[in-house]
Design goal:
The chain is α/β, with parallel strands linked by helices and 310 residues long. The protein is built from nine helices and 15 strands. The chain binds 3,4-dihydroxybenzoic acid (DHB).
């Protein structure tokens, strides 16, 4: 089977959506609920609702996607209300709430709201949105990450993990892992999009999305080798109590298998879910099960993290 455990919580399937895709409102989240996905994560909820950047702000190509959404979302309270309903309607499942503050005080406020609610799920703190003009990706500011996590675990007691941007240097893996190992994180989710790429159209000689003169986060095939590297680098370096969620370039059962082989306990689908819709989870689950059967594996723990070296 493709079941998994994260933060001591059981999930019937390791496959789920990546934050930002099919999770904007109740209609989209219901579609994930009605699919083969093991659970859902909400769109990143902010203190107040946001309309996001100008459109067009998402473009797909044969090899992936570019986006500069700008955190459009209905505000934390909307998603908390939705999850509260789901917790009652489908109590055997556990849900992920993605959040992002624009400063430490907002992070504290968001976590206080969740702490004071009936939320029984898992929090994913987004430290990696590349698309809000004037706001750098927090995950690239190592001092600020340490400062935020110190405060986060003073105010929040439930299971919480972080979504990180991709890193591209071994020393950065070492330095970030040393910081993260100081904290009781439930998980690290690697990776968010490769920030501020450019996908252009030769024919019209134009950029393909409107915000930021066309610069945006890159997902899909372009991202998979970087995602696998980040998943495995953190799997090698983090203490065993910090599990890994693998995100980046998953569009087949083989891609999911590779993320798990690199150490992922759960895998999230962004660009391919956007392209194919929630029925993708049935296909990916069947493909992953076929690979496992052919290799003689019955559970994810038979191969998780067991990547071989030359
Ligand atoms: C957005 C994009 C991201 O890659 C992310 O992590 C968070 C938000 C966005 O632009 O909405």
């Amino acid at each position: 089977s493709t079941k998994t455990t994260l933060a001591g919580i059981h999930f019937d399937n390791c496959l789920m959506n990546a934050a930002g895709v099919y999770c904007y409102d109740a209609s989209e989240l219901n579609q994930i609920q009605n699919s083969m996905a093991g659970t859902f994560v909400t769109k990143t909820g902010t203190v107040t609702p946001r309309t996001g950047n100008q459109v067009p702000r998402y473009r797909a190509t044969h090899l992936g996607s570019i986006n500069s959404m700008g955190l459009p979302n209905k505000g934390l309270q909307y998603y908390m209300d939705y999850i509260s309903q789901q917790q009652k309607a489908v109590p055997h499942k556990t849900y992920f709430q993605s959040i992002a503050g624009f400063n430490l005080a907002e992070d504290e406020y968001l976590l206080a709201q969740i702490q004071a609610s009936d939320f029984t799920g898992v929090v994913e703190l987004n430290l990696s949105c590349p698309n809000v003009p004037g706001k750098p990706q927090i995950g690239y500011d190592f001092e600020t990450v340490e400062k935020i996590l110190t405060r986060v675990f003073e105010v929040y007691r439930g299971p919480l993990g972080i979504k990180l941007p991709p890193y591209f240097d071994i020393v950065h893996f070492d330095q970030m892992a040393t910081i993260l190992n100081q904290f009781p994180l439930a998980f690290v989710n690697s990776v968010n999009s490769i920030g501020n790429g450019l996908i252009i159209d030769s024919l019209s000689e134009r950029v393909t999305i409107k915000p930021k003169h066309g610069f945006g986060g890159i997902g899909g095939d372009y991202l998979k080798p970087t995602a696998l590297a980040n998943v495995h680098a953190f799997y090698q370096r983090l203490k065993p109590s910090i599990q890994i969620i693998g995100t980046g370039g998953i569009k087949s059962g083989q891609d999911a298998f590779e993320h798990i082989l690199c150490g992922a306990s759960m895998v999230q689908v962004g660009t391919a879910l956007h392209a194919e819709g929630p029925q993708i989870f049935a296909r990916l689950t069947a493909e992953l099960k076929t690979i496992m059967y052919q290799k003689g594996y019955t559970t994810l723990t038979d191969f998780r993290g067991k990547l071989n070296y030359l």
